[in-house]
Amino acid sequence: MELDFTGKTAVVTGASSGIGAACARLLAGAGASVVLAGRHRDRLERVQSEIEAAGGLARAAIGDLTDDGTPALVVGAAIGVPGGSGAIDAVVHCAGLLEKGMVRDADVDSIDRMWQVNARAPMLLTKATIPHLAPGSSIVFVSSTVAHVGFPAYAPYSAAKGAIEAFARALAVELAPATRVNVVAPGFAETPMLTDQYPENPAMEEWIVSRTPLGFVGSAEDIAGMITALACGTTGRYVTGSTLVCDGGWVAAG
């Protein structure tokens, strides 16, 4: 089965880099008109230019997703995106924030920021899209393996990701049968969220590979492939309310 989003509209948050940018490229390559949502204008416009140079359709919706006015801005861009369906066919929530720290030393503002970005923002954007979702539409949230296993120094981040998984399960029942709702929980992947940690942890990549049964660190495209397959109405049409762990076997290894 092929991914086919011809004539459909997809919203991707965190589309300026990493998994979000990879999802945007895949969706556009499959025919979608893609709304690139995020707050980094230069990065979003770069991804938009790459998509357009490859013959795809994209529009940047620039705004901080934690601002209460941004969901309406994103929805407006999606409804009017050139080549789109006039409704929203797929929403992919890739925007995320990780700030490490042990709970005993946790900064209250940091905890609040991680909740705002990783839980509250995708909930409110989803709420704003619901009246505009097309029949057969799909929502995919990006969680993390830290919601499934205990990682010290990741507790507030883990809590927010666990919350979004619970939200997605309930929403899947609420929006059925018209809209499917699923979660992809990536493990370690070569994105800025991970690679930015390498300079202060020189042995980190080797340690990750040694603990991963498949023996390598996944790419942003590896994760994006799973996300777009779930988002598609052909490859993912019988899946809703589920979380797919995409981690090279990390969680299975215990």
Structural notes for this entry:
The structure is a single chain. This protein has a single domain (9-248), classed as NAD(P)-binding Rossmann-like Domain (Rossmann fold, 3-Layer(aba) Sandwich), CATH 3.40.50. Helix content is 42%, strand content 19%. The chain is built from nine helices and nine strands. A seven-stranded parallel sheet has the order 3-2-1-4-5-6-9, sandwiched between helices. The chain has a two-stranded parallel ribbon with strand order 7-8. β4 (88-93), α4 (108-129) and β5 form a beta-alpha-beta unit. α1 crosses α8 (220-231), α3 (70-79) runs parallel beside α4 and α4 (108-129) packs parallel to α5 (155-175).
Number of strands: 9
* Elements, N to C (H/E): EHEHEHEHEHEEHHEHEH
**Which overall shape is indicated by the principal axes computed on the Cα atoms?**
globular
Coarse structural class:
alpha/beta
What ranges have pLDDT less than 50 throughout 5 or more consecutive residues? none
CATH superfamily: NAD(P)-binding Rossmann-like Domain
The quaternary state of the protein chains shown equals: single chain
Radius of gyration, in Å, reads 17 Å
Name of the CATH architecture: 3-Layer(aba) Sandwich
Strands side by side in the biggest sheet:
3-2-1-4-5-6-9
Cα-to-Cα separation, first versus last residue: 33 Å
Q: Counting H and I runs of at least 4 residues, what is the number of helices?
A: 9
CATH top level assignment: Alpha Beta
Task: Assign a percent range to the helix content.
Answer: 40-55%
What amount of the residues lies in strands? 15-25%
Characterize the largest beta sheet: strand count, sense, and whether it forms a barrel. Answer: 7 strands, parallel
The average pLDDT score comes to 94
How many individual domains? 1
Output the CATH topology.
Rossmann fold
